[in-house]
From TrEMBL:
Domain ANTAR residue range list: 198-253
Organism: Pedococcus ginsenosidimutans
InterPro entries in alphabetical order: ANTAR, GAF, GAF-like_dom_sf, WH-like_DNA-bd_sf
Protein name, per record: GAF domain-containing protein
UniProt feature, compositional bias: Basic and acidic residues: 182-197
Keyword Lipid metabolism: no
UniProt keywords, alphabetically: Transcription, Transcription regulation
Length: 264
């Protein structure tokens, strides 16, 4: 067995050895375990996985090693900037070991918010095969220092384990003309050939992203603006209020927030 195969086998065993929780079911649960295993295997304090779409950027956070790192993943969706967005767009890892200086120049809003959570380094690895891209695995460090070459190799292997999990358990059903994986809402009956709308274990990310896009459409109708501008306004309101964009979206759909008011 080659060294590369031995390293991969070790990482797979760490994932299998990771204690399961009551919520560890389906794709999302398996990816949560991969995130927790990443923290054990690498010099990282946290990890998260975000699903991506080439047209709209982050679809939503599907997994994380803990609540703090789920918030950090969500920040990139709210702000529309961050290492996972750049890694996905560039189809290559983004290794930012200093959010205080170079990271602050790249992503002013995201870097400041991440540092408020105590994070000073972020490393993003695309989850992809060939030209097809599905999402990004992010690693977080409180200490602003780079990853070693060996740790980068392990992180790439973990991204491939994420890929295998997502493909095997059905979170991506197609690849579009641009080579990008298209996640499907489990409620539409297409995710695994079922027509009863039952869940395939993906958990909440798709439902949450559906609410965000519904709210985007509602704002478009309310204000007579483009979908792109509606998303900008939704993100801006979430950022200004210090709330997750999914929570703001729910308030738009229930009428609690009305963007026709002049103060929004």
């Amino acid at each position: 067995m080659s060294d590369a195969h031995r390293r991969l086998a070790r990482l797979l065993q760490l994932v299998e050895d990771e204690p399961a929780t009551i919520d560890d079911s389906g794709v999302a649960g398996r990816l949560d375990r991969i995130c927790r295993a990443a923290v054990r295997a690498l010099p990282a304090d946290g990890a998260g996985v975000t699903l991506m779409d080439q047209d709209s950027g982050p679809v939503g956070t599907i997994a994380a090693s803990g609540p703090r790192f789920r918030r950090l993943e969500d920040l990139q969706f709210t702000m529309g900037e961050g290492p996972c967005i750049d890694a996905y767009a560039g189809r290559s890892p983004v290794l930012e070991a200093d959010l205080a200086t170079s990271g602050q120049h790249r992503w002013p809003g995201y870097a400041s918010a991440a540092r408020e959570e105590g994070v000073n380094a972020v490393f993003a690895f695309p989850i992809q095969v060939g030209a097809a891209r599905l999402g990004v695995l992010d690693l977080y460090r409180y200490e602003g220092t780079p990853l070693s070459r060996g740790s980068v190799s392990d992180a790439l292997d973990l991204a491939n384990i994420c890929l295998s999990t997502m493909l095997r358990l059905g979170s991506v059903t197609s690849v579009d003309a641009g080579g990008d994986g298209r996640p499907v809402d489990p409620g539409d009956g297409r995710s695994d050939g079922r027509s009863d709308g039952s869940s395939d274990g993906l958990g909440d990310p798709f439902r949450l992203s559906s609410e965000v896009y519904q709210a985007q459409g509602a704002i478009t109708v309310q204000l007579g603006i483009s979908l792109a501008e509606a998303m900008v306004r939704l993100r801006a309101h979430a950022y200004a209020a210090g709330r997750p964009i999914s929570d703001v979206a729910r308030d738009v759909l229930t009428g609690t927030i009305d963007f026709t008011r002049e103060d929004l």
